[in-house]
Design a protein that fits this description.
Layout: E1 3-7, E2 11-12, E3 18-25, E4 34-41, E5 48-54, E6 59-61, E7 69-74, E8 79-84, E9 93-101, E10 109-110, E11 114-118
Length: about 120
């Protein structure tokens, strides 16, 4: 059974950098043709795809967030990480990590989500 678990701070200040980690169990983030994605959902709004890291380590970013986003991985811990810089209150959202096998935008696994609030 594949499980994903997000971890990170629930409250961050404007202008700071958010760092979230997704720990994967039951599958390897280096499994062929797997993709590991960050998605967020502000309250009352639709899901927003932020970016992904593929099984080979290649990264893909939402153009609207690319200048502020970095996704990396630690294969020894089977984790992948999101960093989002220059935070504003508009970055307040529930952040999810998700995993796909084969088709990057068809998610086979989801984390439970973690609320991040940007406020001074």
């Amino acid at each position: 059974q594949v499980q994903l678990q997000e971890s990170g701070p629930g409250l961050v200040k404007p202008s700071q950098t958010l760092s979230l980690t997704c720990t994967v169990s039951g599958d390897s983030i280096t499994t062929d043709v797997s993709y590991w994605t960050w998605i967020r959902q502000p309250s009352g709004k639709t899901l927003e795809w932020m970016g992904a890291i593929g099984y080979s380590g290649s990264t893909y970013y939402n153009p609207s967030l690319k200048s502020r986003t970095a996704i990396s991985r630690d294969t020894s811990k089977n984790q992948f990480t999101l960093q989002l810089s220059s935070l504003t209150p508009e970055d307040t959202a529930v952040y999810y990590c998700a995993g796909s096998n084969g088709i990057p935008w068809e998610y086979d696994y989801w984390g439970q989500g973690t609320q991040v609030t940007v406020s001074s």
